[in-house]
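Long-time lurker. I teach an intro course on protein structure, and each term I like to show students one example going from raw sequence to a predicted 3D structure in token notation. This year I'd like something fresh instead of my usual example. Would anyone be willing to generate the tokens for the chain below so I can use it in lecture? Attribution to the forum is fine with me.
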Amino acid sequence: MNLFLQILFFAIATEFAFFAILILGKMILILLGLALLIFFILNPLIKKLELRGMNEIQKK
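-- Reply from a regular --
Happy to contribute to a lecture. Here you go:
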């Protein structure tokens, strides 16, 4: 019985810690998600501009 209570305690403590980290890191996770979204949206446009030689203008 004692081992069962110990395992139950660690399971509940792990879930509590996981949700606490998610709540505290919510703003950072939102910003990372937005950064990834912007990256995936702009990446094809950037590749097309690089193929047209737009990066050569930056070097001059």
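Some talking points for your students: Residues 2-59 form one domain. The chain has a mean pLDDT of 88.
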